[in-house]
Amino acid sequence: xxxxxxxxxxxxxEAILARDPSAILEVWIDKARHDQRLGxxxxxxxxxxxxxxELKKDQLNDLTGADRHQGVAVRCRVAAAKNExxxxxxxxxxxxxxxxxxxxxxxxxxxxxxxxxxADAVGVHAVIAPKDRAATLNATVRKVASGxxxxxPFITVTNLARSLRALQERGIWLVGAAGExxxxxxxxxxxxxxxxxxGAEGKGLRRLTRETCDVLVKIPMRxxxxxxxxxxxxxxxxxxxxxxxxx
Length: 247
Description:
Blueprint lengths: L2 E6 L1 H10 L4 E7 L5 H12 L5 E3 L1 H8 L7 E7 L5 H9 L6 E6 L4 H14 L3 E5 L8 H7 L2 H4 L2 E4 L2 H10 L3 E5 L16 E6 L7 H6 L2 E3 L12 H16 L2
Parallel strand pairs: 2-3, 5-6, 5-9, 6-7, 8-9, 8-10
Antiparallel strand pairs: 1-4, 2-4
Helix pairs in contact: 1-2, 5-6, 5-10
């Protein structure tokens, strides 16, 4: 059964229109904004026969809980979160070696949205995260993801360590990012069935997650900064995997 959510931002609304315009229940726009970019989106919305409600900017701010809505918001049906069973079905249906992203407790919705956007860009088959103590697919995530929250399967699991072991049983190599290892991400073999495992902001990988990984890698740091933001580190690791895999 689908729930409803407020989704805002031009890219996020465009993604809903492209994938399932029938999911949109209500549309609001900033009545004072008349730029070409929003105008093009409004025309697409009207072509779907959807009514548009005009609001003042502060009303739209209150509705979305944000001031970076880019002048548009919609209320739409969103599918329930996918679980372990969906993941197994997805993996069973692949005809190529899987490329997965595992986020071990990423809590900032901006980071989750950025990770989803990169995952979409490189062709990740699914993003996996624990159900508890981690960011979920909310309006902020969807805005930052710029449509990727609708295109990349987001799987939430009850027990991450157990799910990781299930991936190993399927022959998927678990590569965890951890600054304390001596192995560079550029030295690791990332070409086969693969899951890149990233830790939470500040804390990194949890002990059990770290111990479950087949290998730990680090991103070489040449300057005075000790680590990268998790979404940036995710992009580095995923694009190195893509480079090695030749896709």
